[in-house]
């Protein structure tokens, strides 16, 4: 009897193992089918997005690395002042002195405060002097760059999808944006300075400054300007005196920056919810600028009149941009997106009274965050 059970077991064992393998195979097959359904689900979601080929994005936008700079004061000929309170430069005669009194004489000079600068230094060699002031460093504190990050604004972008290949989407985008720029700085720079003394002919008197209209006296490069001999001084300093110097300055550069950009983009769908894209192309900027400055110089305890300038102007700049965005899909129509953009449209410049003002937009960085609607 026992032998019969053993024989029966040997006959049934193969069938039992086969049944077990079939169950395992069916289970694995079910798991595989289940997994294959999930990619189809993602694909269906992605395809649903690709059907909505148009996208509008409204974003808050903040500009960084935007700087302003004011140049040195300028003469009527557009030459830079070489002193804080005036200039002594070569004129159209080559500084020729027909009298042979000085190594050279020039009419291309000007100063701010005749009450302090005319005969402000002792006579040298029997000749009266006009003094010009400079910091020991030789710098003009009002020429330092200023920035004030961030600069707020907004942007509206329209994107049109043109081609889809698996998870890659290709298209073109056009955008309009606005940035409010407000750069300002004020302060006082104090330190050691020098009074450089320039001789002039006895019996003559350099002009008063400020003039009757409140402007500083300014000679020019060309002949015939500045009048007779009273406007001529030596073109080289005969001596220098160390003095305390203080420069109180204020600078402002406000601008409305309207921008437009156009270029292709490529987008990669990372998952059901996430995507990234890169874009680049043409950038255009319309700048409406308002630049102003003021300077008050104190030399050896004597304060000069305050000089200032202000002007408004506008211009159109052309350049390029490149940027990237990260997108999170809320549903088939709505997204949240954030990005960074680098833009170079060059340098905007304008006159601001007697100084040249510049707004550097050549390395601007914009950070944005907003919402998108597909349709």
Describe this structure in words.
It is a single chain. Helices cover 14% and strands 54% of the residues. The protein is mainly β and 375 residues long. The chain folds into 2 domains: 1-51; 52-374, no CATH class. The chain has an 8-stranded antiparallel beta barrel. A 4-stranded antiparallel beta sheet has the order 7-2-18-17, with no helix packed on it. A hairpin with a 2-residue loop joins strand 17 (347-352) and strand 18. The N and C termini lie far apart (81 Å). Mean pLDDT is 87; it is low at 1-47.
Short descriptors:
19 strands; 2 domains; eight-stranded antiparallel beta barrel; single chain; mainly beta
Can you list the strand order of the major beta sheet?
Answer: 1-8-9-12-13-15-16-19
How many DSSP H or I helices?
Answer: 2
Helix content: 10-25%
Radius of gyration: 38 Å
Overall number of structural domains: 2
Tell me, briefly, the overall form.
elongated
List segments where confidence is low: pLDDT < 50 over at least 5 consecutive residues: 1-47
H/E series, N to C? HEEEEEHEEEEEEEEEEEEEE
The N- to C-terminal Cα distance equals 81 Å
Strand content: over 45%
Task: Determine the structural class based on helices, strands and strand pairing.
Answer: mainly beta
Mind summarizing the main beta sheet?
8 strands, antiparallel, barrel
Mean model confidence by pLDDT: 87
Number of strands: 19
């Amino acid at each position: 009897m026992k032998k019969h059970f053993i024989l029966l077991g040997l006959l049934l064992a193969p069938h039992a193992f086969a049944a077990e393998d079939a169950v395992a195979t069916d289970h694995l097959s079910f798991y595989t089918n289940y997994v294959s359904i999930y990619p189809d689900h993602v694909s269906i979601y992605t395809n649903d997005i690709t059907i909505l080929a148009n996208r509008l994005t409204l974003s808050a936008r903040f500009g960084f690395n935007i700087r302003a700079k004011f140049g040195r004061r300028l003469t009527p000929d557009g030459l830079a002042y070489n002193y804080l309170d005036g200039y002594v430069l070569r004129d159209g005669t080559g500084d020729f002195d027909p009298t042979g009194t000085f190594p050279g004489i020039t009419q291309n000079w000007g100063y701010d405060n005749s009450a302090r600068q005319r005969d402000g230094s002792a006579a040298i060699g029997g000749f009266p002097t006009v003094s010009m002031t400079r910091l020991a460093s030789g710098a003009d504190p009002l020429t330092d760059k200023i920035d004030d990050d961030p600069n707020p604004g907004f942007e509206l972008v329209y994107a049109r999808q043109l081609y889809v290949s698996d998870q890659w989407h290709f298209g073109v985008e056009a955008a309009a944006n606005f940035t409010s720029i407000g750069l300002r700085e004020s302060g006082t720079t104090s330190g050691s300075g020098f009074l450089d003394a320039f001789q002039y002919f006895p019996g003559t008197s350099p002009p008063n400054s400020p003039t009757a209209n409140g402007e500083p006296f300014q000679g020019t490069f060309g002949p015939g300007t500045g009048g007779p001999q009273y406007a001529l001084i030596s073109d080289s300093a005969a001596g220098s005196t160390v003095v305390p110097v203080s420069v109180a300055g204020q600078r402002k550069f406000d601008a409305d920056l309207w921008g437009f950009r156009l270029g292709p983009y490529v987008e990669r769908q990372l998952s059901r919810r996430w995507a990234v894209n890169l874009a680049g192309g043409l950038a255009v900027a319309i700048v409406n600028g308002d630049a102003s400055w003021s300077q008050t110089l104190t030399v050896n305890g004597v304060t000069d009149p305050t000089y200032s300038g202000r002007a408004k102007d506008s211009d159109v700049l052309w350049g390029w941009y490149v940027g990237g965005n990260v997108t999170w899909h809320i549903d088939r129509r709505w997204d949240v997106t954030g990005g960074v953009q680098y833009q170079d449209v060059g340098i905007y410049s304008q006159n601001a009274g007697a100084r040249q003002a510049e707004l550097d937009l050549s390395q601007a960085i914009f950070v944005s965050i907003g919402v998108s609607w597909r349709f």
